[in-house]
Amino acid sequence: MKRLLWPLLVLAALLAVNLFFTPSFFSVEMKEGHLYGSLIDILRFGAPLILVSLGMTLVIATGGIDLSVGSVVAISGALACLRISEDGGVFSAVVLALGLCVLLGLWNGFLVAGVGIQPIIATLILMVAGRGLAQLITDGQIITVNSPSYKVIGGGYLLTVPFGILLVLVVLGVTAFLTRRLALGVLIESVGGNAEASRLAGIRARGIVITVYAFAALCAGVAGLMISSNVSSADGNNAGLWIELDAILAVVIGGTSLSGGRFSLGGTVLGALIIQTLTTTIYSVGVPPETTLLVKALVVAAVCLLQSPKFRDKVFRRAGPPSSPRPAAEEKVRVTA
Amino acid sequence: MDVPAPVLRMSGIGKQFPGVRALDGVDLRLLPGEVHALMGENGAGKSTLIKVLTGVHPADSGTIELAGRTVSFAGPLEAQQAGISTVYQEVNLCANLSVAENIFIGREPRRRGRIDWKRMRARAAELLERLELDVDVSAPLSSYSLALQQMVAIARAIDVEARVLILDEPTSSLDAGEVRQLFHVMRRLKEEGIAILFVSHFLDQIYEISDRMTILRNGRLVGEYLTRELSQVTLVSKMIGQELAELERLHGEARTFDRPLVEARELGRTGAVEPFSLTIHEGEVVGLAGLLGSGRTEIARLLFGADHASSGEVAVGGVPAALRTPRAAMAHRIAFCSENRKRDGLIPDLTVRENIVLALQATRGWTRPVPRDQQDELVGRYVKALKISPPNPEHLVRNLSGGNQQKVVLARWLILEPRLLILDEPTRGIDVGAKAEIQRLVAELSDGGMAVLFISAELEEVLRLSHRVGVLRDRRLVADLPNDDTLTTDRLMETIASGGRA
Question: How far apart, in whole angstroms, are the C-alpha atoms of residue A25 and residue A4?
């Protein structure tokens, strides 16, 4: 739990900044049977990023990385919208889109675990090719669909809560179940911690790596449906652009090491929420649009530094008394409080 | 005999870690031109003492005098500049750089801001000549053996006008010839008046090379002795603090084994080991003796399916078996503890518990987790039985000492109750106490009907444990000898040397 302390503090600080600039920031109200409010918006708009980041977490835990998720987001939305615009069957369109995403993920996994290409290169292939595939599907145009049932995925409500948030909860629940209740998590961490030792312990390392890439692509596919459904259109050029970088960032902020091994799903969710809140904050504070990226980068750099125990040690050693057991005790108090 | 003034004197060194008193009033003095062995079991405080000396950890109490002046180092770099150089167990060099680059990395000779390659190569060659080594200094380090890499590390260490050279287990991955080469270099350095602090688990080596020794136990000083005045048995008893029951052959009488468990026929792998035939019976301990690189590990890996065989076949319990992957071997209840537990055994980021149940979990697949209470029960049983310390299953395995890490890997396989347990150098780099425990365990397991393939560089150990000894030379199984009263280490060595033709 101590691992999640810093992401939590950062998120709290960001929310506090928002509260300062927008006093009504925390208010959540009911309008026409739906929940509304800035916090709900953060969750709703952050939902695709959380999904992509969950898949990315498992990939990174095996010691890999998946750069292609942004392209998969675009492909998923494009294919679904194309099918719906052709004959209107939402269910078959969704199944087809997600099926293709899983296939693409298996392809990534095959390149990494089967052929032995370094993950960053293997997924770079699909990152570039996939963007082209998405443009091919949409014919370079923006496909607009008018389907109320498709709109539900990204823009609908169920029991007053935005449908996207519920979808995230379901995926998060399933992932947590598979990794922590079943043994998938410890096997993933084992493969990421030491692949050769895992193989010699009888773990099907190859199968696990392929599964994880397929899962990441599936998550990206769901996120792609959410994004295109929200705007009722598919944009092969821009949908999911750079989302892989935000997702990697979310995973790292959440405390999962890029070198693989231990991962934290809770940390990733917090990381994704931090990034989404940061985006919201930049608008609400009124940073000029041309400097938003720069501000975002600075805050992210600060967050990463705060996360580093080495950096904190240096700063705190200078600021506070040099006794080492005390900071640990303080942290414990904060966690229980 | 007059004793020269010590070049280094540490007195009353104390060091406290959270929850552990690592060092308590330890003294150490090094005379110029001597090889001084630092002895003690794992956890006795050897590494901590070295780290205090080289400034990795500050001492809580006590003083360090170098050539009569009190010093305290803020880090290894300062210690090195003052003339205290360290060569660690794992070679800390860049294999992809050249020999010369490795020696001068970080302090390359420069001319007008640019690296003076010519001078660098010349000085590197000069340095290695001083150690009587014939090495092409512009070749990449990776093209040389581990032993030579170690010498390069030593050359790098002594270039900075070293007065004290610390060698922390430099021999643990060297074979006999390489050790001889290293000792030759050490003797040369000794003649030049450098004081060498030597740490090793191999008692024979200590007696061959060291002049004096300091023994530590549980963070306290036991004493300082002249090596030639201290017998091996006394040394061991001082290290573990009790009279060690004489380690005799652990098997009482010779037994006959008639139920073959694993039979390899003309099994071989091109470039690794020539085709060999070997039968291991139920309850039998088969030892493999041979020099480093003679094919011992390769045989083990073939029998476990870690590598693919290029020829021959294996039968398990009389039925032909395809051991193409570790999983396939595990299905036949064959287990394998690799010699390189860091690379092939442990998952450092996982806990002791997770590491121990890993193989069991792997056999069940990810859909059927081992229930937590069953995990706790199994892990608790083996932590206790193997005396894994600290006995906390939730400790990260990377924080354990070498011997305890070895026990964790052992526990992982014992849980599966294998029929054949392959142990590749299970006692390397671990202390005397843990070694005896593991040897006793092997004897017990085979008495219980488990077959064991036991590989070790220490011939005494192989002899003590095995019912039968296979001898390897140059990647060939040259002899298969019953371990009766006529088999001695001398005869084993002769067989290795002659290739079984005598």
Answer: 24
How far apart, in whole angstroms, are the C-alpha atoms of residue B53 and residue B72?
8
CB A155: neighbour CB atoms within 10 A?
17
* Rounded-to-integer distance, Cα A82 and Cα A80, Å: 5
Q: Please write the tens of the pLDDT for every residue from B166-188.
A: 988 877 667 777 788 888 888 98
C-alpha separations of A36 from A17, A33, A44, B278 in Å: 20, 9, 10, 75
Q: Which residues pair with B415 in a beta bridge?
A: none
The structure's pTM equals 0.75
On whether the CB atoms of residues B276 and B314 are closer than 8 A, the answer is: no
Decide if B350 touches A, using CB distance below 8 A: yes
Contact B326 A201 (CB under 8 A): yes
User: What domains are there in chain B, each with its CATH number?
Assistant: 8-240 (3.40.50.300), 260-498 (3.40.50.300)
- Taking contacts as CB-CB distances below 8 angstroms, the residues of chain A near B304 are 200
Would you kindly state where each structural domain of chain A is located, as residue ranges? 34-286, 289-337
Do residues B217 and B238 lie in contact, with contact meaning Cβ atoms separated by under 8 Å? yes
Question: CB of B221 within 8 A of CB of B214?
Answer: yes
Cα separation, B491 vs B502, in Å, equals: 10
Q: Note whether A194 contacts B347, CB cutoff 8 Å.
A: yes
- How large is the ipTM? 0.81
A109 close to B (CB below 8 A): no
B348/A262 touch (CB, cutoff 8 Å), yes or no: no
Cβ separation of B370 and A187 shorter than 8 Å? Answer: no
Q: Are the beta carbons of A196 and B344 separated by less than 8 Å? A: yes
- Give pLDDT tens digits for A281-336: 888 888 887 888 888 888 888 877 877 778 878 887 655 444 444 333 333 333 33
Q: What are phi and psi of A315, to 5 degrees?
A: -65, -45
Q: Tell me whether B18 touches chain A (CB under 8 Å).
A: yes
The secondary structure of residue B16, as a DSSP letter, is: E
CA distance B19 to B35: 33
pLDDT tens-digit map of A142-190: 888 888 888 888 887 888 888 999 999 999 999 999 999 999 999 999 9
Residue B404 clears pLDDT 80, i.e. is over it: yes
**Average pLDDT estimate for A101-120:** 94
Q: Does B371 touch chain A (CB under 8 A)?
A: no
Q: Are A195 and A119 in contact (CB under 8 A)?
A: no
Could you please report the per-residue DSSP string of B171-207?
TTT--HHHHHHHHHHHHHHHHTT-EEEEE-S-HHHHH
pLDDT tens figures, B240-293: 665 444 445 555 555 677 788 999 999 998 878 889 999 999 989 999 987 766
Handedness of CA B235, B236, B238, B244 (dihedral sign): negative
- What is the CA angle B38-B40-B44, rounded to 5? 115
Q: What is the structure's pLDDT at B246?
A: 45
CA distance B76 to chain A (A): 19
- In this complex, is the C-beta atom of A294 within 8 Å of any C-beta atom belonging to chain B? no
From A182, A194, A201, residue closest to B366, measured CB to CB: A182
Kindly list the distances between the CA atom of residue B303 and the CA atoms of A128, A299, B280, B285, B428, in Å, as whole numbers in the listed order: 44, 55, 11, 15, 21
Do residues B155 and B128 make contact, with C-beta atoms less than 8 angstroms apart? Answer: yes
Whether residue A120 lies within 8 A of chain B, CB to CB, comes out as: no
DSSP state, residue B245: P
How many Å apart are CA B422 and CA B326, to the nearest integer? 12
Which one of A183, A196, A202 has the shortest CB-CB distance to B366? A183
Q: And the tokens for A325?
A: 């057991």
Cβ distance A99 to A67 under 8 Å?
no
CB atoms within 10 A of CB B86: 22
